[in-house]
Amino acid sequence: MSNVEFILDGKTVSAAPGETILEVARRENIYIPSLCRDERISKNTSCFVCVVRDEKTGRFMPSCAACPAPGQRIDASSEQVQSMRRTALELLLSEHSGDCEAPCTMACPAHASVEEYVRAGRNGEWLKALQIIKQRIPLPMSIGRVCPRFCEKDCRKNIFGKPVAINEFKRLAADLYYDTYMEELPPSNGKSVAIVGAGPAGLSAAYYLRLKGFEVTVFEAMPQGGGMLRYGIPEYRLPKAILDRELAHFEKMGVLFKYNMKLGVNVSLDELKQNYDAVAICVGCWKASGLRCEGEELAVNGIDFLRKVAENGNTGENPGKTVVVGGGNTAMDCLRTAVRLGGSEVICFYRRTEKEMPAEKLEIAECREEGVNFEFLVAPVKLEKRDGRLVLTCRRMELGEPDASGRRKPVEVKGSEFETVCDTVIGAIGQKCRMPEGVKVNDFGYAGAEHGKAQVEGKVFAAGDCLSGAATVVEAVAGGRKLALEVDNFVTGAAMPEEHEVFVSRGRKWQGMSEKDVVFLRKDVSNAPRQELKFIPLEERKTTFKEVCSTMTPEQLAEEGKRCIECSCTDKADCKLRFHAERCHARVDVIKGEKLPPSYDNSHPVIIQDRGKCIKCGICVKTCKEVVNKTLLSAKKRGFFTYVGTSFDRTLPDSCAECGECIEHCPVGALDWRIKK
Amino acid sequence: MSENIVKIRVGTASCGIAAGAGAVLDALREKAPASIPVEETGCLGYCFAEPMVEAITADGGSILYGKVAAEDADNILALGENKRFEVPEGRKKRELTKVMALAGRINPVDFDDYVAHRGYEGLKKALAMSPEEVVNEVKISGLRGRGGGGFPTGTKWSFLAAKKTPEKILICNADEGDPGAFMDRSLMESVPHQMLEGMLIAAYATGATKLFIYCRAEYPLAIKHLNIAIEQIYQHKLNVINGRELEIVIKEGAGAFVCGEETALIASLEGGRGTPRFRPPFPTDSGWKNFPSMINNVETYGNVPLILRDGGEAFASVGTEGSKGTKLFALAGDLKYPGLVEVPMGITLGEIVFDIGGADPENVKAVQTGGPSGGCIPVDKFDVPVDYDSLKALGAIMGSGGMIVIGKNRCMVETARYFLDFTHRESCGKCTFCRVGTKRMFETLERITRGEGVPKDLDFLADIGPKIKAGALCGLGQTAPNPVLATLRYFRNEYEDHVIHHRCSALQCSALVDLKIDKSKCVKCRMCIKTCPVGAISDDFVIDPDKCTRCDSCKEVCPKKAISRVGKGL
Q1: Domain range summary for chain B, segments of one domain joined by +
Q2: Measured between alpha carbons, how far is B526 from A242 in angstroms, rounded to an integer?
Q3: CATH class held by domain B512-567
Q4: Which residue of B has its CA nearest to A42?
């Protein structure tokens, strides 16, 4: 038989006898996705993501099985073909039930590899843990102490009780190795970046830019670095000595800090633009919102209050009876600082209920422990001075319809005014950005970048609170990294690292899941209760600015690490379904519907079979039958409920561990080794 | 009068037995004088009149009785007037009985009876011809596969005949899986020799060496009759073809719809999981255990003896340009005379549905042809001639012959959902488009009929349907979206009613209707209150929509027809 000439995407090509269109396309470097084809076994024609179209008849066919006819015109790349492939992939994604990433990582704004650093810590490899953490979080000492722990809120361990104490791993890894570990820095790329603001966003940007070989100069308006970490977060949560250690590392990395340099006062934006290849604006949100009531000028604003205490070495006047208005984390910091300064009675006024409070639950609890009282559903109406003291008039509220933020809007109760006599009123009801002149802003006064981008205009970039509005340290850090990548791309033309777009999840939020939805890869997942932080005595907490709790010990965290379920997919690094879905721009949840009930088999010592991930390609069944000459696997049931089971429901023999042929060729993580690489 | 009767036949095909023919047979055998033999016979196709009894008189006349019971034995033996059956006029005028000519007229398991009615004449003639001449005769007849695909039978035969391998396989597809279709069952039960004769002719023409009949296990009577007939063929050495004794093997299928697809059928025949595979290679190149294999269905083989007996040209004189001969249809749904009927190709849908089926023209909305793989055709297109190509042009298919009449009281969305429910469960699970695609379509239809649909759902159905048709591996998936796409095409307004106004205009989708008592008609007899299984009707005759399960029990029991379905909340 002779070769067959045919036309593939307009190009005349030749196929050997018996050669499929897919094989020819691969030779010709024409991309055709395929999931169910494996050269060692007979043709499957199951996934149909490899479809091509006969231009003459308009018929689609699986290129993995179809051999070309002489002169046939095959369309392998048109939008029509791609649409079919996308739909095939979206159908597969709609029945695929796995976790491309663990929910902790998904929840983390910086997308840190939580599972990996928790595993390293559990195994006692704390330096490795720190290295993994620093890939996304360059401020582990601070974040290990002050992070609101998005990761823990989505931790699947919540289904069984309390989440894994993830943040403590960062704290210990940093406490142990932060000072001694030094990244390998590349040689300078000859480009320089000016960063305005030495807060979390600026520091994060500086860190990743240094790792890319940039010369980095940080201009800071205050006499010391750290931004809100220093002047906003009180000593008892983040000791300044710790912050100093953290900052010292940046200097070691060659980041140049220029303090007392305020943009627009000591240095101009034009100057920076002239002298640097890029300018990063990371000035934060330092403008406090007023109480929005008569006499608001009599109140202290929260940020100033905290900054002054920090500047004065954690000392300050006794505020007497103190009312803090607001329910965010800054309000909590003010309350607890007021307690420590000797406030006789410290009360929090919040206009909604505790449920709607933006402050961390943990912070609220610690406030209460330290004797703070809460008064919910009250809003200030008037503040006045009377007989040398302050009188705050408030009105009672009730919750009405949900507003834009989804929280129920407080509505005034008429005639419910009441007075509170006190010595200090602190307003902590929000922060705004005071953007230096010359930087483009949006309607809300934040840096005017396109949504999801750091570039504002030309060589000016922005990150952190001044771009996003007041947020958390970890969000600022994530923004700083993103800025660094964009600057690198802008200045050197370096490609943006590929970010995953497809995230299949069994349930992004654990609230909708039950115990049987959780897959246990390891058999030694511990059911022990969460390790708890050790606090200093309450009396000391209330009277000093000492750090309230100590770092957990390696022994404690080795135990805690065993509680981690390791939710993410064993195949997350080389899943073919995810790869082709991303390459073909197929999206998760475009097509929705029932998925198979959760079912996995981890009875084998080293193999796990996770049916929810199976795409029924049949490779494993045929590999066992045709390559290994055993018939240990078989397809069962029919239609949508088809699954791959073991023949006669026997367990796989231990000898399967030596073969593993089916595992190596499973396109997804449905059959895999139980050990994560 | 019973002295005039020379023979009595009782129809004891499955349909007759299900209707109670067994007791009738026993009663007649007990009461008939020894001089009158009471024989069993097959099915005449008048399902609506089963059980049926035929009395043959000395003058050769035939008197039919319908809907008989055991106690009618005396009346029949006396040739009484009671329960005499007349073939409806419309049917008499339109039907053309060729393939089924012997069904219900002979004893299915009596070899001599078949031979006496010109059985095996076709085989005899064929054996006197060369195999090429036989293939040619089939080509001349214009016969096309009756299983649904409509591939020219003679051409298919020539493919296998051309194979120069020592072993060739002939397979009869008797895995009639469409719900509501029973043409093949009836033919196998009533005239098992006819299909077998067709297979033997095919074996001679193509040089096949092994014969399989793949029959669903749900057809025990057909299998029983075929086994008896095969034994008789062996006895009469009719299976000796070209000097070689051929084996005829019946394989019972486990009832998977997809096993009617030829490659899945072969996989099942080989003992494997019944899943299709990509073609080429076609079975005539590589089929059962890689031998060249040819598959025809029961009705196709059933036509073959007639072609050989009467000649291909005589066969081709019936039908249309592209579709020759007659076709069997199983009529069901909203009509007066459900049953099996044989008609010439080219007859119009209206003639079948109204004249033969006796459906009320005022109450017919559409007809579904081709079972769950087919599509519905609205009543305004009933003048279309029934042939392979015209039906396809309308978005339906000829299929194997199921024809379901859909009355005006039926919701077309619910109808589509019903068919998808069947196909998505019968998908073998191998290819993505069919396994997941039909499931997602079904889920969408479920949502719509529950009143939870949104307009976007219609876009989804219209987008995914053609993709499933284009992307599925086998005929099951390639046709599964047809009922949805056809109803979307002809009855889009009904879909829109559901997703935009959350109304079911046919008042069939229970989630979108309430039951209401018309107080002006109600006579307060309390029958409804007593009947309601969930206590949803109050003492002052108000139905609580939260309790009501829409079972319609009250509606059915109301003597004044005061209870009706109304749109939800109306």
Answers
A1: 2-86, 111-315, 412-500, 512-567
A2: 84
A3: alpha beta
A4: B277
